[in-house]
Amino acid sequence: xxxxxxxxxxxxxxxxxxxxxxxxxxxxxxxxxxxxxxxxxxxxxxxxxxxxxxxxxxxxxxxxxxxxxxxxxxxxxxxxxxxxxxxxx
Length: 89
Known about the structure:
single chain, alpha+beta
């Protein structure tokens, strides 16, 4: 379910140590959030697919995102998990 016009509020939430959102100052978190709009996705929904030419970026505010990739022999493998406030390393 998408809510493309709902403003994002990230300042009032406590973020786990070691996450991107935890490391930012309150004003920086708010500035980052102001660049986008909140969207909610159903469990198991694809945010993007391999080969997509999207320029979207996602900031996970709640829940968990599973990043999958494909192998040369057609298998699907787990690349990483990302939780709320996190970022890739």
